[in-house]
Amino acid sequence: MIERWLIVLASALVFLPIAAPAQEDKPKTVQREEDVIYGRKYGTALTLDVFRPESPNGVGIIHVVSGGWYSAHEAINQGFVQPFLDRGYTVFAVVHGSQPKYTIPEVLEDMHRAVRYIRHHAKDYDVDPEKLGIYGGSAGGHLSLMQGTAGNDGNAQAKDEIDRESSRVAAVACFFPPTDFLNYGKEGEVAIGGGTLKDFRAPFDFHELMPNSVQPGRKGTFVPITDEAKVLAIAKAISPKYHASSDDPPTLIIHGNADFLVPIQQAELMVEALKTNGVEAELVVREGAGHGWAKLGEDLTLFGDWFDKHLRGAETKEDAKEK
Hints:
27% of the residues lie in helices and 20% in strands. By secondary structure, it is of the alpha/beta class.
């Protein structure tokens, strides 16, 4: 019980910099369906909460509940959801398998599963399966970008109908995301549980299944991966920058240029990679801001504008100014 409390506390602390906007004294009517099971992993249920707005617009967006690759139901903050509900979006707050139990590659599997589940049940939630957006901050931003760049078509031969669905998304918006673990802050700086990310060892504790040397043919055991080449290959595979391609969705990143944990260079590398591939990408820099800032919640308005433009075809204030 104490261990669980510490994990929840750590998750909550990670979310503190991501200040949600102040709530109205009398919030609008919202329907919240909690603990919807979108998958199971080693006997553990993977869940998401569904927030339905008072006046739905038929579009769904996914909120990645993650900070430091911790994720917990208790960390779902409606203040981080409400601005989108006010615009009519149906929001799916996804809780993934959390560190320290699961590593980033395993977390990515959860996110693919969540998107497939939402798409499969889109009709039940009255949202367009081809217009799904995704957003998050920090680790949640990293996972959002991975979904944007590495979302894939489902397996048409899969026994589970959900696994036949695509895990692609149509628009991405995120705050201060890690994007290249092989060049973290500067070229050649590897950050996988060390350096700047030394306090985040568990998500990078990669293991592999080895054959049973005592009883050949029987189930083997998982052992830590110590081969440097294998570790670096995994680090590259979980870095969104290396998955950038011409079919990626429009992407918005907001980042402080004084971020001590995730250097703004990470956002710059990502935007450059996307633009090189002809993808619409935008970086908004917050001058002097670190890993989170006091009025960060207000920047959710920019996320909303981004989704309005790319998921609903609405003209934004910035578009109007350019005319």
